[in-house]
Amino acid sequence: MHNLLKGGKLYRYDYDVDLDFFIAKSRGGTVRIAYLDPPRLVLHRAYFLLKNDGFGAYNLFNNNCEDFAIYCKTGLLSPRIIALSRSGQIASVFAAICAIISFPYSLVLTSISNFVGGLALCYVLYSICRLLSDIGYRKDARRVGV
Hints:
Elements: H1 2-5, H2 19-24, H3 39-52, H4 65-74, E1 76-77, H5 88-110, H6 115-133, E2 142-143
Antiparallel strand pairs: 1-2
């Protein structure tokens, strides 16, 4: 494990979390609503895909290492046309951009004097965007076998 990390940090995902915990966890890409499959099935998917080059070409936004891990852990995929990424970190970046862009509008809606209200509204928008992109919440996600 030490050689794999090369001085970096090891991060752990939490799966099958409830909605309150998901929203409270502000750092995207660390929690999932989706159920975690048994380790035997997770390893079967990973070995099969690695052996058969079956997950496709790497793409930072549409098919990255986090997407691979999420599929192996849950067996869930969503259509590429709709899904920007299954990656929580990528989705969080886009959610943050949406919240920042909407910030001036939130100040108008909550009155300019209510800066805290504007920030709270931005956080709500950020959380909604993260939730809508979560593979466990998405209605278009399907269980796909290898």
